[in-house]
Design a protein that fits this description.
single chain; 612 residues; alpha+beta; Beta-Lactamase; 4 domains; 5-stranded mixed β-sheet; rod-shaped; disordered N terminus
Length: 612
């Protein structure tokens, strides 16, 4: 972005190029050479008809003094261009003093060296705004008038010349000022048009880059940070966003290592930047937010989180949603206290508007993609569930259908065969009953309608009874239980029926995956409390294939089943276990078993007396 020079605000008016300095330099030497040639060739320092009574120094000495001054001044002007850079004040003063001294020493108003006053007059007209320029020109005119007093006193002709020269000085200064002011206005118009063109080009480029970001938040944030550095004196840029879940603001993108991505901004509470950007008492009508400004030249000190960054000002530009809410801000650390120009403020507002919309669209797109992914996963889980349910229902139904004809009296069959048929009927009916019960239980858990009835429970005794009841289940694969418990285990505060349901599901799952003739290890322990709460840990381990690391966060989800379809169920057992453990205030997880296999662990709280 092109910026006006900083000395404009001080009353100086720079010209658009160094040609003004070169013009003044050429004018200086033309006047000097013209006056010197005429004076030295005629041997007089005064006009024709003017007396030399007031001459104090010879024309040769005056010429030498002027040349000795002009040579270093010319070098300074050539190197530093004081008119453009705004350092002409000292030079203008020195030129005025030189003209006054040389004119006084060479005869006053009648001296040809009085033309040296033309130089500071032109300098004042070109360098300053018209009010300041006219005041300086009047002062220079008075100096030329005072330098003419030695000749004008008692000499009517010299007094007339002095008056004409004074009027000429004012007229020349007025013409230069008018011309310079007109040139400045034209320059200002051209500069404004150029700035508008540059700003539009930059914003168009930003819009194009944001459009090419493919709704990726990282690319949008990078574009935002890069765009801010077209402004001068920017030390660093930050993009801060709000985190509604944790009710704080954090750094989402940064160009400085002092504020890394993810850094929390403690000075901004859950209200966000609203009190910073919306002036107090502005009401609900907020057509445009105010820029936040802190540091030198502002009414607010630098916030604490940037106080040690070596910046002079902090500028905040809000990211506004279409609803008017502030979703974040662009923060710029500046190394100057120069006020932001109208063009800079407009650029920052336009950038914030473009970036805010792009970032919002990216967030909405990300949410939509998440919803699509969740829907896809749900559809896959639903398909798996229906497939597994159909398989689970088909097996017992096929058995029942096959055995249905045997319900008629068959006296020729042995009694043992009839008993086996009855047992098979009962087992498959129980299997169907458990499947339907699990489905109903999962629905109630998801709806939050399951109520616990906790009481003080002897977990060791209850576990032994559960294992005795489930022993026939293990005998089918020649498996057995290995139960371990401390000698003195305090009672837990739990619902006995639900604890039995959790253990039954875990043991059934372990027996399903454990190899034949292996042990199902069940252990109770009391780990050291890490949070002051007493707990008892129950562990069910098997020597099966184990659970892959990538599936450990999924196996407790509803309808999730393993890739081994021969052993997979409908994906409800572990889901029910997880929800029941959560209702008790415990947690459940799976880990590797030493020597191979899996260990499913869950915790239950001790009774209030024991936990204390």
């Amino acid at each position: 972005m092109m910026q006006p020079s900083s000395h404009t605000a001080q009353g100086l008016a720079p010209v658009p190029s160094p040609r003004g300095d070169y013009f003044l330099l050429a004018l200086r030497w033309l006047i000097f050479m013209g006056v010197s040639v005429i004076t030295l060739s005629s041997g007089r320092s005064a006009y024709e008809g003017a007396a030399d009574a007031g001459t104090i120094v010879s024309p040769w000495l005056a010429t030498f003094l002027i040349a000795a001054y002009y040579i270093p001044v010319s070098v300074f002007v050539w190197r530093h261009r004081p008119l453009v850079t705004g350092r002409l004040g000292g030079l203008l003063l020195a030129d005025g003093v030189l003209a006054t001294i040389i004119t006084t020493l060479t005869g006053g108003g009648g001296s040809l060296f009085s033309l040296l006053f033309v130089i500071p007059i032109v300098e004042a007209g070109l360098a300053y705004r018209w009010r300041v320029a006219l005041a300086l020109i009047a002062t220079i005119g008075l100096c030329s008038l005072l330098a003419s007093l030695p000749l004008s006193s008692g000499n009517a002709g010299a007094a007339a010349v002095t008056a004409v020269k004074f009027l000429f000085t004012l007229l020349l200064g007025l013409l230069v000022t008018v011309f310079s002011e007109q040139m400045r206005q034209e320059y200002t118009v051209r500069q404004a048009a150029l700035l508008a063109t540059v700003r539009m080009a930059v914003l168009n480029e930003i819009s194009l880059r944001l459009g090419e970001s493919q709704l990726e938040p990282e690319r949008i944030l990078t574009t935002m940070l890069e765009s801010t550095h077209v402004l001068p004196d920017i030390a660093f840029s930050l993009v801060m966003l709000s985190d509604p879940a944790n009710q704080h603001w954090y750094v989402a993108a940064s160009t400085t290592a002092q504020h890394p991505v993810g850094q929390r901004v403690p000075e901004i509470n859950e209200a966000g930047f609203t009190p910073y950007f919306w002036p107090a008492g502005s009401g609900t009508a907020r057509p445009q937010p105010a820029l936040y400004l802190a540091g030198k030249g502002a009414t607010r000190p630098l916030p604490e989180f940037v106080a040690d960054d070596g910046i002079i000002q902090l500028v905040g530009v809000p990211l506004i949603l279409p609803t008017g809410a502030v979703m974040g801000a662009i923060a710029l650390g500046r190394q100057t206290d120069r006020p932001l120009s109208d063009d800079e403020q407009l650029f920052l507002r336009s950038l914030a508007l473009e970036a805010g919309l792009a970032l919002r669209n990216a967030q909405l797109y990300s949410r939509e993609q998440d919803q699509v992914e969740r829907l896809r996963r749900f559809e896959a889980l639903r398909a798996t569930f229906f497939s597994a349910t159909a398989h689970e229902l088909k097996t017992p139904l096929t058995v029942l259908k096959t055995l249905a004809p045997t319900l008629t009296p068959l006296p020729h069959l042995p009694g043992q065969t009839q008993a086996e048929i009855s047992q098979t009927f009962a087992q498959n009916l129980e299997r169907l009953e458990l499947l339907v019960a699990d489905m109903l239980e999962s629905v109630r858990l998801e709806a939050g309608t399951v109520a616990l009835h906790p009481r003080s429970l002897d977990l060791a005794g209850r576990t032994r009874r559960i294992l005795e009841r489930l022993t026939p289940l293990l005998e089918r694969k020649q498996q057995h239980f290995d139960f371990q418990t401390p000698a003195h285990l305090p009672p837990v505060y739990a619902d006995g029926k639900r604890v039995e349901q959790i253990l039954s599901n875990l043991i059934d799952n372990a027996a399903k995956f454990a190899p034949p003739a292996s042990a199902i290890e069940v252990s109770l322990s009391q780990p050291c409390p890490s949070d002051g709460q007493g707990l008892v840990q129950i562990t069910v381990a098997d020597a099966g294939p184990g659970v892959p690391l990538q599936e450990r966060g999924l196996i407790f989800d509803r309808f999730y089943s393993t890739a081994d379809k021969a052993l997979a169920g409908v994906g409800l057992g572990l889901f029910i276990c997880r929800e029941l453990v959560r209702l008790h205030g415990g947690r459940i997880w799976v880990e590797d078993r030493p020597g191979g296999g899996s260990r499913f662990c869950f915790t239950l709280p001790l009774t209030a007396e024991e936990g204390a």
